[in-house]
Automatic annotation (TrEMBL):
TM region(s), chain numbering: 12-33, 54-73, 79-104, 111-133
Record has Iron as a keyword: no
Keywords per UniProt: Membrane, Transmembrane, Transmembrane helix
Name of this chain's protein: DUF1761 domain-containing protein
InterPro entries, alphabetized: DUF1761
Presence of keyword Thylakoid: no
Amino acid sequence: MTDLSQLNYLAIFVAAFSAFLVGGVWYSPILFAKSWMKENNFTDDDLKSGQGKIFGTAFVLELIMAFNLAAFIGAESDITFGLIAGFLAGFGWVALGMGVTYLFERKSFRLWAINAGYQVVSFTVMGGIVGVWH
């Protein structure tokens, strides 16, 4: 079991923040904003309300996920293991778990690919940060 006192809490915070940076690009007009909005039937007006609560809660959730990933990876890791563990957690647990839910909710493959892809990239980046930063 990982000794939680040995974890780098600054790395965990930065890893959680990295999910916002990845999401900022992922869900921007540069990449998938239009497709994501279309698949969710969102308009620009739909996305204007409640942003503070959404972003604040999302950061708390990302922080918990980064902590959980760091505890899984352990304090004596390296970037290679961190990247691999992050990818496997993002794809093998998060993306595929979302896939099961999306099937039953009859959501589109395209929406799953956008959202699951974000999670895989975010977890991989978080794993790399936690793995390299002791």
